[in-house]
């Protein structure tokens, strides 16, 4: 989970000014946490407490009204009677990584991922994006090699993962859809050799950089067995106490573990 949050923070400096290079300061002075982090923490809190996803997402989301939510989501967040609004946006995938760390069967991961998406992003592509992200985290955590992760996700969700970061980068642009974000974020992980390299891959695509890096970062954390100590320390420094407490509690209860298969 901390890997997803770190990806969000690292990518935040380039969300409005996308770049097409991997050569950038890992933590730019303008880095901050965004809605990706807030909602990831909310999903984690729901898992820790057993409370409904809709309740914790709204409660924690409202604490940070300026985190960078989309306009429709803000309306949902502040509504007295929130209803899912058939969104296929990548917000469904950016917040789901805790599911891949917390649950221990593929069926349960897929079911819980669908629930986290369905409270707002109940379009089939929104649910699919959340499931593909959570399952990638789960398979990486379980020690599956990249070839198996790629095959599982491609076959189950129909994503084209037969590309590289270098193939995608030249023509890729800002895209808020799950279908235009999740495959690219997974490829950024598949085409990497370390946690940091994966996040740099995601940001270098020049798209919705904080969300791309958030999705990639969660998968990479699971596969590479954590994040560098310096990255974790920077996340702790940037997060407010309540979000760090949730993050730390979740990571303590659901640590990255297990070896390669």
Can you tell me the overall shape? globular
CATH architecture tag = Orthogonal Bundle
Overall pLDDT level: 96
**Secondary-structure element sequence?**
HHHHHHHHHHHHHHH
Radius of gyration: 16 Å
- How many discrete structural domains? 1
% residues in beta strands? under 5%
> If you consult CATH, what is the topology?
ADP-ribosylglycohydrolase fold
Question: What are the segments in which pLDDT stays under 50 over at least 5 consecutive residues?
Answer: none
Note the main sheet: none
Structural class: mainly alpha
Level of helix content? Answer: 55-70%
Question: Helical stretch count?
Answer: 15
- Mind telling me the CATH superfamily name? ADP-ribosylation/Crystallin J1
What is the top-level CATH class? Mainly Alpha
First-to-last CA distance: 22 Å
Q: Give the strand tally.
A: 0
Folded structure, characterized:
It is a single chain. This protein is mostly helical. The chain has a single domain (2-253), classed as ADP-ribosylglycohydrolase fold (Orthogonal Bundle). It is built from 15 helices and no strands. It has helices at residues 2-12, 35-49, 53-63, 71-78, 91-94, 97-102, 106-118, 124-141, 146-157, 165-168, 182-190, 195-204, 209-223, 229-238, 241-253. It is globular and about 45 Å long.
């Amino acid at each position: 989970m901390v890997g997803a949050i770190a990806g969000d923070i690292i990518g935040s400096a380039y969300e409005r000014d996308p770049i097409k290079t991997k050569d950038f300061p890992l933590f730019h002075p303008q880095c901050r946490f965004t809605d990706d982090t807030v909602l990831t923490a909310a999903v984690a809190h729901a898992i820790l407490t057993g409370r409904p996803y809709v309740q914790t997402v709204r409660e924690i989301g409202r604490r940070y009204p300026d985190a960078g939510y989309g306009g429709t989501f803000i309306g949902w967040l502040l509504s007295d009677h929130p209803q899912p609004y058939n969104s296929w946006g990548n917000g469904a995938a950016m917040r789901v990584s805790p599911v891949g760390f917390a649950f221990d069967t593929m069926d349960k991961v897929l079911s819980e991922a669908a629930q986290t998406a369905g409270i707002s992003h109940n379009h089939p592509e929104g649910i699919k994006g959340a499931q593909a992200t959570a399952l990638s985290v789960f398979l990486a955590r379980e020690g599956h090699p990249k070839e198996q992760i790629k095959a599982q996700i491609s076959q189950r969700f129909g994503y084209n993962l037969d590309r590289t970061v270098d193939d995608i980068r030249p023509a890729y642009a800002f895209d808020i859809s799950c279908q235009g974000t999740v495959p690219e974020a997974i490829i950024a992980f598949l085409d990497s050799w370390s946690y940091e390299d994966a996040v740099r891959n995601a940001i270098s695509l020049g798209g919705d950089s904080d969300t791309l890096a958030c999705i990639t970062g969660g998968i990479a954390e699971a596969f590479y067995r954590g994040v560098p100590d310096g990255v974790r320390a920077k996340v702790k420094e940037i997060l407010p106490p309540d979000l760090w407490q949730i993050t730390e509690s979740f990571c303590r209860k659901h640590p990255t573990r297990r070896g390669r298969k």
